[in-house]
Amino acid sequence: MAIDYDDMMQASATGLASSYDEKDVMLYALGVGFMRDPLNEKELPFVYENNLKTVPSFASVIARGEAPPERQRMPQKSTINFMMLVDGERKITFHKPLPPRAELVGDERTIGLYDKGAGKGAVLMQERCLREKASGEKLCTIVSAYFLRGDGGFGGPDLPQPEPHAIPDRAPDLVHEVDTRPDQAFLYALSGDRNPLHRDPAIARMAGFPRPILHGLCSYGTACRAILSSVADYRPERIRQFDVRFSKPVFPGETLAVDIWVDGGTVSFRARVKERDGVVALNNGLCILGD
Question: Chain centroid to CA 163: how far?
């Protein structure tokens, strides 16, 4: 069974119930590299329960949640090769700062499906809106693009993909280096993504990689750490939007050199792998800052 375009485009779910607490928030911050220096008092609020702050990119790992069966429209005629699925893009708009604990309700729907052709894969785009259960207020909207490496050629309509944010055509205003640890994928996996591709060498080889790769969303969170620490003054409430396109895999233990362009409240960025001659791992990054 391959992908059926109409079937996949109708996929949706409403009333997805989920929650998180302070432990989840602190574990995530450690998983994306906060407190490498245990005496860094600027990072302490992200991992310490007194006046705890939530890293904005934590939104990317908030559980999808569960919806009653009658409020789900799951694909009936389609299958996806999940072994060949990798993150393509993530775009998060924050309607208010993430609290350190919350009970949430979410709605999810498919908003795009693009066939690149046989042997070239496909791109699936989904949108999830999260609201606070008690107040009903919107917390954030997440748009995820997944590259389905093994599912191209299903005969979908020839539609153009949305253009990503363009990086400025000038030298970056600053370059901020952030490290990853050799064991980081094991710690990050505790925030919810247990895909063995990121921890099991045999599975990584089966998927075509020489060794396990770092979660794309861990690289995303690491880039958020770079923006928070360099241009957002460690104030997570300033980040109103955080988007990125995943270009190349990162291996645990590598260093990301984050090129940053600041144009008022618009921050553009990309992340290069320092140990591999600057290969671009994250591209077309966009962060919108508020006051």
Answer: 18
| pLDDT of amino acid 64 | 78
Domains of the chain, by residue range, sit at 5-148, 174-289
pLDDT tens figures, 121-172 = 999 999 999 999 999 999 999 999 999 988 888 988 878 888 999 999 999 9
Give 269 or 87, the one with higher predicted confidence: 269
Long-range contacts of 230-233 (CB under 8 A, 24+ apart): 230/174, 230/176, 230/258, 230/260, 231/174, 231/260, 231/262, 231/267, 231/289, 232/287, 232/289
Judge whether 5-148 and 174-289 match in fold.
yes
Q: Which CATH fold would you assign to the domain 5-148?
A: Thiol Ester Dehydrase; Chain A (3.10.129)
Residue in 85, 83, 59, 45 with CA at minimum distance from that of residue 192: 59
Domain 174-289 has CATH 1.10.30.50: no
Q: Which of 193, 227, 239, 243 is catalytic?
A: 193
Please say if 216 is a catalytic residue: yes
Tell whether pTM > 0.90.
yes
Question: Which of the following is catalytic: 3, 213, 239, 260?
Answer: 213
